[in-house]
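Example for tutorial group B:
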């Protein structure tokens, strides 16, 4: 794991955007794996600026998102499809037909099989962006007694439901299930960027980097990946011995 420590969230966002910029320059038709949540918003804003000011061209890029809530259509403003359209896709020159988010509406088995096939047919993911859940989840791979390899339906952990309540009217409105890429799907990405910000992630980030590899801390599996860059601010790294 390469660890890149930044002063703050803005510097983290710039650094992550620079690495994505380099990936797109290197391979204009690359496959980017993307995440939602608060952490990558600044990165997406930097990429929008790079598109507007530096001509960063997304016309050949294909994206696959990590996850989607079950039961929400793409026009629901709480869906991850809606989030991606509004935080990134509508502001850059990527054809919407090149952007993919798991389907939370159709039968889960079909949605999962189709998503795995799609990623395989694209030739895999060149660079996967990840955020880190407070409980160590990546995508919606929640702490469990084993790792699940492929895209699958999950029951969200109470900690995740509580953390995501901030985006909904109240806790009852948070969906209880989601479709997520599996740990194997994520680990097959050729490069991984793990973005972590804030003191409240300091304990879990230390476990991810220095703790045992265990499905109880799903992101700990990243220790086994050959090309992971952790970009984290000082606050998030405040409990990590480097
Ligand atoms: C989002 C996702 C999640 C988030 C994680 C951190 O697509 O898969 O794993 O990355 O919950 O969320 P934030 O960034 O809101 O703290």
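The residue assignment follows.
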């Amino acid at each position: 794991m390469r660890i890149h420590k930044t002063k703050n969230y803005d510097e983290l966002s710039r650094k992550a955007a620079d690495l994505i910029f380099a990936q797109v320059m290197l391979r204009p038709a690359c496959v980017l794996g993307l995440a939602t949540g608060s952490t990558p918003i600044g990165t997406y804003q930097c990429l929008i600026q790079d598109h507007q000011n530096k001509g960063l061209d997304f016309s050949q890029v294909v994206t696959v998102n990590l996850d989607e809530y079950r039961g929400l259509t793409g026009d629901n403003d709480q869906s991850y499809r809606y989030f991606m359209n509004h935080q990134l896709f509508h502001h850059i020159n990527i054809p919407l037909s090149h952007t993919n988010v798991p389907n939370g509406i159709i039968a889960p088995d079909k949605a999962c099989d189709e998503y795995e096939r799609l990623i395989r047919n694209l030739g895999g993911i060149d660079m996967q962006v990840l955020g880190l859940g407070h409980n160590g989840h990546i995508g919606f791979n929640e702490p469990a007694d084993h790792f699940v390899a492929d895209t699958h339906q999950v029951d969200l952990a109470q900690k995740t439901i509580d953390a995501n309540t901030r985006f909904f009217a109240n806790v009852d409105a948070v969906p209880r299930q989601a479709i997520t890429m599996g740990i194997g799907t994520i680990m097959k990405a050729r490069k991984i960027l793990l973005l972590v910000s804030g003191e409240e992630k300091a304990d879990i980030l230390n476990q991810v980097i220095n703790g045992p590899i265990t499905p109880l801390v799903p992101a700990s599996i990243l220790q086994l990946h050959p090309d992971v860059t952790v970009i984290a601010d000082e606050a998030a790294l405040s409990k990590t011995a480097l």
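The longest strand covers residues 191-196. Compare this with the pattern of hydrophobic and polar residues in the output above.
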